[in-house]
Amino acid sequence: MPDETHPRERHEKPPYREPKQAPPGLETEMRNKPDHGEESYRGHDRLRGKTALITGGDSGIGRAVAIAFAREGADIAISYLPEEEPDARDTVKWIKEAGRRFLSLPGDIRDEQHCVELVDRTVSEFGRLDVLVNNAAFQMSHPKLEDFTAEEWDRTFRTNIDPMFHLSKAAVPHMKPGSTILNTTSVQAYQPTGQLLPYATTKGAIVTFTKALSQLVIEQGIRVNAVAPGPVWTPLISSTMPDEKVAHFGEQGQMTRPAQPAELAPAYVFLASSESSYVTGSVMDLTGGKALP
Fold this sequence. Notes:
seven-stranded parallel β-sheet, 12% strand, globular
């Protein structure tokens, strides 16, 4: 049994025997199931009466944030790819069990018009938008520069950074003072791995985007922050990394294991709530011991 008192021992550690999946991967097909806080997260009404739109809300960090936000009292809209519908249904189940309203929004956020429609449908359904969580991401791993294709480079940027601009631009006119925008960046923005060249580059761009956008919207009472996780156990890992990397994912860090999505969700709750009212333009370190500059 895991030792709940020791941070290294709280969750299963590598090596993992995880079957390979095609990108973006499904949590329902994983042998080593991530922990999204389904059985552990307890809410305290920190987000009562608020509405949140979460991209990549079907699984991984997005699902953990959706569960936590719902248990904190928020109504939730989740965006995801149509092929991720099985995972999205599971996320919706937990939102419903928390007694909150939900909105499922399948589609591809690489399409600017779809981004605008995500915001419009959320506001139409719930009458407001208080929290935008830009979380969806794509990555591929290759050992050599020549292995990266122009199509992969374009897909990574059009998934990881472009929608943050389109969604934020569409969302801000609907947001009232006290609203927040939260962006998921990564330790890769500061300590990049060559094998993740396009992904790491977009994560660096997200840090800059967060800091710059925070200056543009603070007069409207909107705060903008980012979270920088280290290795996190999600379907994206088993579907985009070589088998050997997956087997030993997160092993080299101080925690000797990857984070589980449930361990990151409380940070998003803090940044979305009024408890962080003096925090904007910041990047929260959730790297498991890898210091950010």
